[in-house]
């Protein structure tokens, strides 16, 4: 199904509303996300749908639109905030558009381990981040942990010195650019769809992504080494529009909150199994995993990133450090 935008989106949502009336449901929740039907996010969304519709005895009907059918992450967030049809989306550092502190979600080496992330997200820092989200009009129902990002290359990158003059594709992120510049590399932002050809033609020397994206991009065909830098551990929030949430009423709100907890647990279980399988698959396809001293990369990266943090981001980062 092609991406739904503008007037067509409004028509689709109107049709969904008609179907809701016909089915007897008094509330409709529309979930949109950017990944395909095989992704853990989508499978977790279907689990949420199953629980909510069952527990609410049909009072709530849930529809799930994968593959950017409702637009990009930013467009879906805007749709939620303006009542444009989307009700729940998965979002992270893109929220810095509304609150600069939320950009910290995409900070290289801001989170150093899964244990550290849990302390941050389930402690005082997490409460502060959720309050910042609520201030924009989005209520946090839970979160999905993203796989740590690693660097691929045609040679082993054992230390930051091996990155000197290394042309690497990075996302359009000032923090990521600053981190790799500090490590001596030449970061080049470009669209994900252009990466394979650019690697193949030698326009860039390498790229960085989680295992899932490395596999999706078939980068093993043009890159021989996967350097385990784990330079970014991030997450996305399961976010519902506060206006929609309040319209549900207390009883249905509890059902949605409990379903979201199960959604998070279910996705994380799938995620852990998938990460292990992806590593085995990439190794089987010939990629050599290079174990590096991450502290060397961390030191250089943070040196660069701290220079581009705003004062509010620096204060929040220090709280993250203290949480560890």
Structural summary, described in words:
With 324 residues, the protein is α/β, with parallel strands linked by helices. The chain has two domains: 6-145 and 235-276, D-Maltodextrin-Binding Protein, domain 2 (3-Layer(aba) Sandwich); 149-233 and 283-323, Bacterial extracellular solute-binding protein, family 7 (D-Maltodextrin-Binding Protein, domain 2, 3-Layer(aba) Sandwich), CATH 3.40.190.170. 47% of the residues lie in helices and 19% in strands. The strands form three sheets. A six-stranded mixed β-sheet has the order 7-6-8-5-9-11. A three-stranded antiparallel β-sheet has the order 3-10-4, with helices on both faces. Strand 1, helix 2 (40-55) and strand 2 (60-65) form a beta-alpha-beta unit. Helix 2 (40-55) runs antiparallel to helix 10 (250-284) and helix 6 (174-182) crosses helix 11 (294-305). It starts with 5 loop residues before the first helix and ends with a helix. The model is unreliable at 14-22 (pLDDT under 50).
